[in-house]
Amino acid sequence: MISQIDQRAPARQEDSCCRAYALENAEATFCIMCGKPLLRCMAFSECGGIVDDKGLCPVCVQPRLYLNERATITAPLGGSVAVPLELANVSQVDRPLFVKRLWSRERGDWRPERLGWERLNPGDRQSATVTACEIEKPGTHAIEIMWEVATQWKAREEHFAFSSTLILTVPAASAEQNITNIHITAENQQGNVNQITVPERRSTGVVEQVPRLDMQVERQDAYERRSGLRGMEGGAMVGRNVPILLKGFAEDHLLANERPIVSSDATLRFGRMTLRGGGGNIDVQLVAQGENGAMDAAATAYFSRQHFEIFIENERLMLRVLSENGARVDGTAYGLDKLAPLADGSTIAPIVKAPELLTISVRFRYEGSNISAIELSREPAWQGGAA
């Protein structure tokens, strides 16, 4: 059952100088106040958000977790405890979240929980339940809860994991009390741990009800890497702040060089169209060069006005085909709107039937296990200076 949140929580990202400047200057690439690159959210046109280095937009991605109000949690000692929860999307912009998976555990491996829904519209919350097993004796019992959420924009989807923890405290029973059931109430605690204390059994038999509890949540970026939810095979991560170095292109075929992707739609777009700011929507022009060093107009016509785009998604480098003519990545042909991952050593051939006309090779520069820069090299390189 969906219920409306009484009052939406404010965005966790304050209007920083970067966000304010990006909203005022649609084509700005760096914040004039602090000098940082403006790493816009993929849905910047809707949310106006600036992502962090790990790709999270705090405007679009605002999950909350609540312990259900007026819910009663009761179970026999030695059995299981069903914990009723509500997952909420408190984003103040019209950006739904998609809850892909939910897990819980007391210790050991994560245990998947069942969800009968996925979409979580802004301002709404949906019910879910996790089960705490093996509450066999008095003492302190921790229940960890983790869930995966996704935010979508056109053909793109970013995934993140968040978690929270409940502590169940079951007091020892005296001989006179002879506690046989667990009755749980909740109280707010600071930090990421929410304390649930089991009161002594009352002679009246009154069952305590749980008040609504806004639980603290944390992003689980370490789990995202370990599970392959984000990052590349082998553990390498492509952060949104990684600069891209364009080699072998004429200077006037590039909007800019040696900087992160800072365009308003968070993409680096290739094609024969005019560059952004000059009436077109391209960051890198695809132009064929003849034997005399001049542009080969006939060969250049094989490139579409917008041929493909490159972007960083889930800390991976991705290519999306924009042309009905398709493109090749590592020898495989991809059609319109298809996505292809790019790795260290990948080769992009824009013309499927004539891959030898022009290729772009991909190289990663590493500092330890981190990718410090990405090189995109045109082959054959443009001979001479500006075209």
TrEMBL record:
Q: Which InterPro entries match?
A: FHA_dom (IPR000253), SMAD_FHA_dom_sf (IPR008984)
FHA domain: from which residue to which, for each copy? 268-334
Name of the protein this chain belongs to = FHA domain-containing protein
